[in-house]
Amino acid sequence: MSINLDQAQQTFIVEARELLQAMEESLLQLESEPGDQDAIGAVFRAAHTIKGSAGLFGLTPIVSFTHIVEDVLDRLREGSVSVSAELIAVLLKSGDHMLELIDVVASRGEQLQPPALEREVALRQALQVFQAPASAGAADSTSASVVSDDEQSAEVLWHISLRFGVDVFRNGMDPLSFLRYLNTLGQMVQVTTVTDSIPAVEAWDPESCHLGFEIDFRSAAGHAAINEVFDFVREDCAVEITPVNETPDHLEPTGTELVSQPEHSPLVASGELLGDQRAVPRTPATATATVVERPSSASEQKNKDGRYVRVNADKLDELINLVGELVIASAGASLLAKSCDNDPLQEASSTVSGLVEQILDGALHLRMIPIGDTFNRFRRVVRDVSQELGKDIDLIINGAETELDKTVVEKIGDPLMHLLRNSMDHGIESAEARRAAGKPAKGHLSLNAYHDSGSIVIEIADDGAGLNRERILDKAQQRGLVAAGASLTDQEIYNLIFEPGFSTAEAVTNLSGRGVGMDVVKRNITLLRGTVDLDSQPGQGTIVRIRLPLTLAIINGFLVGIDQSTYVIPLDMVQECIELDEHNRQLTRDSGYLDLRGEVLPLVYLRDHFNHEGPAARRQNVVVVRYAEHKAGLVVDDLLGEFQTVIKPLGKLFGALRGISGSTILGSGAVALILDIPALLNQIVQMEARSTQAPQSLLPTSR
Amino acid sequence: MPTPDESTNDTARVQIDGELTIYTVTELAARLLPQIGAAARLEVDLSQVTEMDGAGLQLLAVTQREAGKTGTSLHLTGQSKAVSETFELCNPGVVL
Predict the structure, then answer these.
(1) Is domain A369-549 classified as CATH 3.30.565.10?
(2) A566: which strand partners?
(3) Contact A210/B88, CB-based, under 8 Å?
(4) Which of B38, B37, B47 is nearest to B15 (CA)?
(5) Percent of chain A beyond pLDDT 90?
(6) Residue A540 Rama label (left phi>0; alpha psi -120 to 50; beta)
(7) Is the minimum CB–CB distance between B60 and chain A shorter than 8 Å?
(8) Among A454, A638, B2, B51, which residue carries the largest CB count within 10 Å?
(9) What is the pLDDT of residue A3?
(10) Residues A510-531, buried b or exposed e (16+ Cβ, 10 A)?
(11) How far A176 CA sits from the closest chain B CA (Å)?
(12) Structural domains in chain B, sorted by start
């Protein structure tokens, strides 16, 4: 495989996968709304584009199979075939097979293995049912020309005149691949290679292309389709496609050709054939006619493509790194500007800071993609699994436009998939059981995503049977995870299912129940610096809540000082700041709580927590922070204001340090540690759970 | 390692190993073209060609043209599968 084509082929593979994804979504859409013309169009376009591109790369197995799919879709488009459950099922499976073809033939350059080939034969047969009766023939794997039918346009004999431009080879194209592709659209009745434009040998560069072809081509494909074949070389080359029935106005010699002998049996009388060979109407009028026809169909596609730019993920990371440095440098400059008594300078510096903030937001958003794509993939899974289980389950998606960092979206897919399968398998009961329980026979699975105080929350809820508290407790005691007689809150019991090897499923299915899933799910989420929680009502359902940090490399922070040290609290988690006056200080010292307008707020004395020596400052402040359902007050000395920071990891030496999630460099050059609020709050929660005053401390915050 | 070109009894023989594509045409042209006119008969062995593209086809066409001009007779001895498929596709009519 030549190197130039390799890169283009990689792009083709990526785009083909995306197209197949879109095709699947549209097919699922069609299943629920059979009259959706847009969905039909989208499915057709996906197959059509894949077939076309595959042809250019000479990937004949892909072209051959996709051709049949496209044929069926074309009939669907024009109304000869209507949407039915069987059709959708066959098309969905065909899409799967096309994906396999892309992986095996395009990506790995191998051939299909016998099991896959058998699947293909079965699919071809299934597809033939929907094709026009005349084209139903023996299922063969070579690409056949489109057979004409009463309803389709009759085959026409075209004359195609090609003169490839000088740089075609250098641009990574091979004229022969276009010929190969034409073979999949029809039959090349007669081909002649034209070499008379090759310059004299002294002036000849072997890497420049001076080839031309005169082709008699029989096809039912239509002028536009044939023209489209040459889209990639449109700029360099002269392409003329004319129907052979037109009598030529004048005869022009096509130049000396290499000795030509008709390879295929001519389907027209030889007299006609010779006449056509010499008649290549190359008047400018006809030339422009063929060229002008192209833009109308292509422009719509190009408009849509123009809205996106493909960017290498590494370049984005580099950019974000640079922006991070910019933030630090700009903070330093701001600081210096403030120390000068120069108003214009301060104003200019503050303008720069404002702009840097905007660039920061923009850069971070570049890496964010809506989670909707991942959610939509699950529609197919839910459909397939619910059919497999014989349950009727509806998937409702909310918050699909919520945006997440690209890597997080990629890594959260598998855990979500597993949780969904669990819900369907063990959560939602069969239709009879549901009816007996007075619930609607249709089970509901809902996926929800939203932002909340610096995190993104993903909820998977089902209205199934809920978690069986007793069974979990029993199992845990059996396995020695819990001492007999220990009293645990509901939450703690539910969280036991995340222990490795834990499963209370009575029946192990091939989907779930083996107990290898939930702990892996939890681990993957922890790796993303997230948390996962369960909430369940027996008989009513279960909600799994995954919380992931939105913050990436740069965060907005709130600076606080203790003695000479500075700490950073993520701004998103800061609720308010209060001064801790003398009176309250005494009270709170003893109890460890603060009365916040009637609410009980546990306090964390960061000074003690981080072992600062020396007496407490005269004036202290409390920063109220909130994460998930937990609220706490952090007692610090000074409040130093907002600050944008770049998170710099601490390094392996400090890997086990809890409560600190990174460090940053201040404008003054000093190092500030970034507090890991969730971890801190967790510590408090654990301490509370053990103390006798447990119930009162954890008040759920009202939203 | 390409088979060295030989010349015996006024017949030049060139064997092309491997690719006959855009990547090899410049080098192959440097081997082939000097042989034209140097001998009365030029045999080009294509049985070891692994891949052939439009550039390779063009090279053969030029070789044929130049051979015709100088009176050297060109013969293609042996065609690998890649070569025969290419010829079948675009029918250049090069005499075997």
Answers:
(1) yes
(2) A561
(3) no
(4) B47
(5) 12
(6) alpha
(7) no
(8) A454
(9) 53
(10) ebbbebebbeebbebbeebbbb
(11) 6
(12) 6-90 (3.30.750.24)
